[in-house]
Amino acid sequence: MSRIAVVGAGSWGTALSLVLARRGGHTITLWSHTRVVAETIEQTRENTIYLPGLRIPETVRVTTRLEEAVGPAEILILAVPAEHLRGICCNMAPLLSRDQLIVNATKGIEDDTYLRMTQVMSEVLAKQALDLPCGVLSGPSFAQEVGAGSPTAITIASCDPALATRVQEEFAGPTLRLYTNNDVVGVELGGALKNVIAIAAGATYGLGLGHNTLAALITRGIAEITRLAVACGGRRETLAGLSGLGDLVLTCTGALSRNRHVGLELGSGRRLPDILADMHGKVAEGVRTTDAALGLARGLGVEMPITQQVAAVLHERISAQEAMRELMSRPGRDELSL
User: Is 107 a catalytic residue?
Assistant: First the structure.
């Protein structure tokens, strides 16, 4: 039996808690930053705010006290919005011990620093002289479907093979299958950048365009993601797997995708502030990741035309229709060239 703490009681953190509890054999603690979420789960055994309709077993303990979740845990899963990861890690660092494992389930690139999430974690922990094994959980997985028990396959990536193998064994169950990978860079960037492309894909729905357009966007999207990942040290083959193409296809086509929803609304002519206000605090990570991805790409001299057009639409410089025209009027190039 392992003691597992899930830090973050949004939809993804709640879904992971639920599937791990159903698997059995673990003690699960779910930490919520918001008292109303914790109290709602305790009283109703349901996260009606972020993951409604799914009963959370009594075996999942809920707390708002970070020390109660982090201190006793053997495995820590971070499932918080990317913009809050650094702050949460700073609060966690004094509570950590050297025999704990950390698994990042947050997808994004940090504003201004352009660091991947594990880089943010390592930077914070280094200030506490901690060098804990870290892994990344990513892949095609809508929280609602994972929580409901739909068969799902994802990736656990780590430079530490022992960590990856342990997480694979501890998390795997009848509805969750994990594949190991040692390409942390590729897995992280695949998970972060697919959200940007999904906004563009959603815009094609909002514009009323067809399947040809969507297929082209997904295909050229994975090429764009791969260019940046390889420039950062990732492997091309990783981006052809679950955490790359798999996650991209899901997020670009699935109706549960928040990033696709944002794009759809933008394509329909709505303004971004109004779209986000209607999401009632739920996060579409691609909105923030777009500018960070472009900052990272500029520093490496990597071309990202789809991401550039998404940024232009998000910042209301052009319409979604104009962005599509810009992409279609670009000079011709060889398909396989980086």
Answer: no
